[in-house]
Specification:
The protein is α/β, with parallel strands linked by helices and about 375 residues long. It folds into 2 domains: about 200 residues, Response regulator (Rossmann fold); about 150 residues, 3-Layer(aba) Sandwich (Rossmann fold). Helices cover about 35% and strands about 20% of the residues. The protein is built from 11 helices and 17 strands. The strands form 4 sheets. The protein has a 7-stranded mixed sheet with strand order 8-7-9-10-11-16-17, with helices on both faces. A 5-stranded parallel sheet has the order 3-2-4-5-6, sandwiched between helices. A 3-stranded mixed sheet has the order 1-12-13, with helices on one face. β14 and β15 form a beta hairpin. α10 crosses α11. About 50% of the residues are buried. Belongs to the leucine-binding protein family. Keywords: Signal. It comes from candidate division WOR-3 bacterium. InterPro entries: BCAA_transport (IPR051010), Leu-bd (IPR028081), Peripla_BP_I (IPR028082).
């Protein structure tokens, strides 16, 4: 049985001395928007937890080498009990290697490349699904609307993008869905028209895109310019669920479907309260990235309270026994298949309708009916 989050809000076990926890996120560079949301969410969680935790933030700038240096500094100089955070898979993998080397627990909240939890590392724990699990909600959705005959997969050639794309491609091949285009690209592209023109000629029923924020915006703007009309544009999470995606893409993102890991409508404890409190404080709404950051501190507090001793070994063993229902969802760190300390969860689907994200899948918790197929660009 899951221990409900409200049980955490009792008197702290430890005195007034603060427990140092390292937190590495991108606060500058191209992924700073994600880091900003994470930091805001951490600050809200710090106000609510009762255990005296001091978060020591480090900026990885979205660069694996910087992330490695930050991890070493936190471990050797700041003497942190454990490290949490990370956004991109490449930085998360770099931090994971350092933490395993020093035998320091690392709670990875977002980096999704499968290989992060496929190394047999006992100090590395991941609360989000693996990249290959991201399309699970989308696959279930296709059983409802009918299996498409063809799909095009466009993805950033990072650890996250490649892991997601490879998994989806294998699944499509098993299901008899023709992959008419498989298009990796370098991050920060300034022109996707050559790729999109190729897709227009192939006429796939589904265009599935795995991109961070700025690329997600540009892909949809240029798809509209070229009048691409598949049955669905589908984002693989990441940039496609950010509030800034709605602002940047404008009406070009209307009816885009995206995988997501979380919704305030999913019914998890404190999820709606977090969603509304974040908006009241910061003037925008969080997506699943913020929910991961917010929930991660409750996971840390839970482990601290259960640890037999307040040491890195004690926290590692406590994390391994985690069984908690958080605002992000249920968290258990399991060993299965070739994964170690990996949480398992189904993904959801959002769709942009009337300029807002609406939860459309699974049906039992959906707030809006999905709109499928894509109705086209001329909707006046």
């Amino acid at each position: 049985m899951f221990r409900f989050l409200i049980l955490l809000l009792s008197i702290p076990l430890f005195g007034g001395e603060k427990i140092k926890i390292g937190c590495i996120i991108p606060l500058t560079g191209p992924k700073a928007k994600f880091g900003e949301m994470d930091r805001n969410a951490y600050e809200l969680a710090l106000e609510e937890i009762k255990t005296p935790i001091e978060l020591i933030f480090e900026d990885d700038q979205g660069k694996p080498k910087v992330a490695m240096a930050a991890a070493e500094k936190l471990i050797t100089k700041d003497k942190v009990l454990m490290i949490i955070g990370e956004y991109s898979s490449s930085c998360a993998f770099a931090v994971a290697r350092v933490c395993e080397l020093y035998q320091v627990p690392f709670l990875n909240i977002c980096g999704a490349a499968d290989k992060i939890t496929q190394q047999g590392w006992r100090n590395v724990f991941r609360m989000n699904p693996t990249a290959s699990q991201y399309p699970s909600g989308f696959k279930d959705f296709l059983k409802e609307v009918g299996k498409p005959r063809s799909i095009a997969i466009v993805f950033e050639n990072t650890l996250f993008g490649t892991s997601s794309a490879q998994s989806l491609k294998r699944w499509c091949q098993r299901e008899g869905i023709r992959v008419v285009a498989y298009e990796p690209y370098e991050a920060g592209g300034v022109d996707f028209k050559p790729i999109l023109t190729k897709l227009k000629a192939k006429r796939p029923e589904i265009i599935y895109m795995i991109s961070y924020l700025m690329d997600a915006i540009l892909l949809m703007r240029q798809a509209k310019e070229l009048n691409l009309t598949p049955k669905a544009f589908v984002g693989g999470g990441a940039g496609f669920t950010m509030p800034s995606f709605l602002e940047g893409a404008g009406d070009a993102c209307e009816y885009v479907i995206s995988v997501t890991l979380w919704s305030p409508e999913a019914g998890y404890p404190k999820a709606k309260e977090f969603y509304n409190k974040y908006h009241q404080r910061y003037g925008s709404y969080p997506d699943y990235h913020g929910a991961e950051a917010y929930a991660s501190l409750f996971i840390v507090e839970d482990a601290i309270r259960r640890a037999k001793e307040l040491s890195r070994d004690g926290i590692r063993e406590a994390l391994k026994q985690t069984d908690l229902l958080t605002p992000f969802g249920p968290v258990r760190f399991e060993d299965y298949e070739n994964y170690t300390n990996q949480n398992r969860m189904k993904t959801l689907l959002l769709q942009v309708q009337d300029g807002r994200f609406r939860l459309i899948w699974p049906k039992e918790i959906a707030t809006n009916k999905y709109i499928y197929p894509f109705p086209g660009w001329n909707r006046d």
